[in-house]
Amino acid sequence: MPHRRTAFFVSDRTGITVEMLGNSLLTQFDDIEFQRVTLPFVDNLEKVREVMNRIERANAASGMRSLVFTSLMKPDLREEINKANCMVLDVVDRFIVPLEEELGTKSAHAIGRSHSAGNFKDYNHRIEAVNYTLAHDDGMTNRNLEQADIILVGVSRSGKTPTCLYLALQFGVKAANYPLIPEDLERMKLPPALLPLRHKVYGLTIMPDRLQQIRQERKPDSKYASIENCKWEVTAAETLMQQAGIAHLNSTTKSIEELATTLLHEAHLVRRVY
Amino acid sequence: MPHRRTAFFVSDRTGITVEMLGNSLLTQFDDIEFQRVTLPFVDNLEKVREVMNRIERANAASGMRSLVFTSLMKPDLREEINKANCMVLDVVDRFIVPLEEELGTKSAHAIGRSHSAGNFKDYNHRIEAVNYTLAHDDGMTNRNLEQADIILVGVSRSGKTPTCLYLALQFGVKAANYPLIPEDLERMKLPPALLPLRHKVYGLTIMPDRLQQIRQERKPDSKYASIENCKWEVTAAETLMQQAGIAHLNSTTKSIEELATTLLHEAHLVRRVY
């Protein structure tokens, strides 16, 4: 196995912010496989030097300079890690310090507070949205369906459930989902419960060969997973959506984050959590 | 209502990366409430100038300079937006260009590819983990419980479900959860199904007054939500965990992200998705 370049996320606290930032940036380079290592609670010079030894070993093993994303706050620790033989991307230097200056206040990190901790309103919105979404997964119930912010429809395994959960967890959106089953597709009509809520309905579709691949993992060599059946279901579902005047997204080439974020904008959903 | 400072996320594509980065940074300043505006698909000079007008209006309305996080790639667009009367935090300038130089390759953004799209292996891990987690929520079944990467225990409403879903969606971790119900607390023993899997069990606890607040929203003025009952359950659950030799985290002051990330490290879970 070829050695991969290492990306370190180094923090004097939990490392959550720097890990999120770093991962967000690394997804921009998804041709390259990185070995990712998060090193939290690096809060004194001795620990920084241990980190630097680890960086040296990673450089030697891979034959490539490691990347180091860091959010160390103390000037002496930052100065030290900048001596490492690697590319150091310092979040504090490049973003947090300028923001502190502009906003005239210290960051939570600087004053030792926890990452977005204790925001009770956010927490309630999330929990409420998650509970709602779990109760309204896969057309489980029509009770309180009118309270949904959005109702996703699509054939089985088109990506509805993870997209709804992401909308609930990340944005506090109440996201119901409803499968389009062969009966709906033969009738060429939306499930009856959705008719009065059509303005909240949004479609997900998927390419038949990808659908076949996903279904094959779940029910190998079934009619359900056959390419003929997948083609028929997808074509029928897209026709049904078009006839019912329902906008849809294709999930095939989109990550769950991208689907959820696109829906947030396209369906003009109100984000309740940041 | 006092006007809030506006934070703009400006992108020539979907804006997902810049929005994630910006939000990650803004959670560092959670004393300040921002009005957040994402402006995707800003891909020519005319649109940049519209954005600049919007920034001027936001500045005038709030009496405060807006923050602008931007990931515009084209030099002429970047040059233009940097003339705006606001703090511009340019992700391309500060991070993507240095990374491109170091890695000797262009970013997905630069070459117009979609955000982490089409990673089939990641998608499968996520879906598998989400399905597993949904099937093993709240002690729903003991079937295949041994396949869990982690089993969270705690009293009702201590934060188990959202934490498990986050672990599954974000990290591809199979996370089961099991409630500690009054019967368990009276026996002072883990639910029997968990005894052979004790090495995978991790506890969540919560401060009684916070628990009372959460339960009160769900079942107002019930015995379940009373502060006496919450105190008793929490004390008993913590004693049980201690006696059973199970490590636990307190969810009271932690966000779901922080709980999940801390568990990932503390329980040495293998992250399958980035």
Notes on the protein architecture:
The structure is a homodimer of 274-residue chains. Chain A is 45% helix and 14% strand. The first copy, chain A, is α/β, with parallel strands linked by helices and 274 residues long. The first copy, chain A, folds into two domains: 99 residues, Rossmann fold (3-Layer(aba) Sandwich), CATH 3.40.50; 147 residues, Rossmann fold (3-Layer(aba) Sandwich), CATH 3.40.50. Chain A is elongated. At the A-B interface, helix 1, helix 4, helix 5, helix 6 and helix 8 of A face helix 1, helix 4, helix 5, helix 6 and helix 8 of B.
Number of helices of chain A: 10
Q: How much of the residues of chain A is beta strand, in percent?
A: 5-15%
Number of strands of chain A: 8
Assembly state (oligomeric) = homodimer
Largest sheet of chain A: 4 strands, parallel
Helix content of chain A: 40-55%
Task: Outline the low-pLDDT stretches of chain A.
Answer: none
Radius of gyration of chain A: 24 Å
Element-level helix/strand string of chain A: EHEHEHEHHEHEHEHHEH
- What is the name of the CATH architecture of the largest domain in chain A? 3-Layer(aba) Sandwich
- What pair of chains forms the biggest interface? A-B, 74 and 73 residues
CATH topology of the largest domain in chain A: Rossmann fold
In round numbers, the mean pLDDT of chain A is 90
Question: What is the CA–CA distance across the termini of chain A?
Answer: 40 Å
